[in-house]
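Let's practice the habit of predicting before peeking. Look at the sequence and jot down your guess about where helices and strands might fall. Then scroll down.
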Amino acid sequence: MNRIIFVLLIFLTVFSLAIRLFRLTEPSHYYFDEVYHAVTAKAYADNNPAPYDPFSPAPKEGTAYDWLHPPLAKLIQAGSIKIFGDVPFGWRLPSAIFGTGIIGATFVLANLLFGPVVAIFAATVIAFENLTFVMSRITMNDVFVTFFVLMSFIFAALYVRSTSEESFSHLGGVKKRSVLLFLTSLFLGFSIATKWTGFWAILALFIYIFWDDFKQKLVSPKILSLFIIPGVIYLLSYSQFWLQGYTFKQFYNLHQQIWWYQSRGDLEHSYATTPIFCAPKGLSGPKTFCPWALDIRPVYFSYEQYGSPRSPRGEAGEKAGYIYALGNPLIFWAGLVAISYIVGRLIAEREKKYLLILLGYFIFWLPFVFTPRILFLHHYLPSLPFLAIALGVALFQIYKSRAKYLVLIFLILVAVVFFYFYPISSGWPIEVAAIDKYMWLPTWR
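Done guessing? Here is the structure:
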């Protein structure tokens, strides 16, 4: 069984990387937030100090520097640009690699907590999740923070397991736990150095790892390490900033501007949402119910016209490539049932492994209910691997019953829905009129 699962995981990983790389250079220009992220990564590659100054003029019309987020993801992208050039493949390759890495990391975390069968179910679900696929093919930072968060959860799960398996008086066990705690903190640092969302991972793992310790002792070196090491990593992620001669005062001023922007309530966007509402006119404008969890309002990323080839009858057959940041609706909707099931298991069994999955799922969207600014569906991305693991647990319960064939049917349907929406997830050229068949809900337009 384990050999079969290993082969399936290798297949899923290779297949997922292949479809992320296929036509990765389309569209052949910046789209959506690449006008910020790819431009800034190129400037980092050139050691240009302008991106660290929030008052720097735009490098070219229609673009701007991204000083709003920490630098780590863009530094990784800058390294790719240095190797492959300032071309779409160079901008986007790191996203494809880290986006594929999410599949393996989901498998490892699920295997640690629930075993290999749940893990392969969860990995299959996340491999055929459309929003994850879309974000793996664009130069943004969301797949990076999601991968780093998963890695931090993996090492946290290993740390908690080690505390129950080994005696605290055993020197080797203490050393092992220290290493695992350091690695947990390291990846938490990578998370927050990619996007401030990583702070919620610190909070989640603090609750998961140290709640019992915290009740006994208000402050301990272990607790402090979970905050100090990520803070150090965050400062180190700005190494280029420091080497370019910027000062601590300028660092403080930069973060003042970041906080000001993140707190703005006057922003508007036709696809703007909060975790609960659509808010195209901003948070002070009218709102409609469209929670991320129900996949009600995607984000329209790109429209690329591919000409008007003539049919034999001489009629125009215009084609276009569309990219929508839309989740696989079957996964989103079934996932809510699975999350409810995990809540029930936690209440009934009080096992920390269920707590970890629920923390991972809720911590990356529930606090944003109180957001001071507009957001978008792709901000839900870090929750999706935990949704996939919850689905894996629920599917395993069915698999152990006489109705195990239903699991295979469900996973096949997940893949079918993924491929159904593949054209508008990848920008594959389709007839312009054909877009209507993908708009299952009027809010998807």
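How did you do? The chain has 16 helices and five strands.
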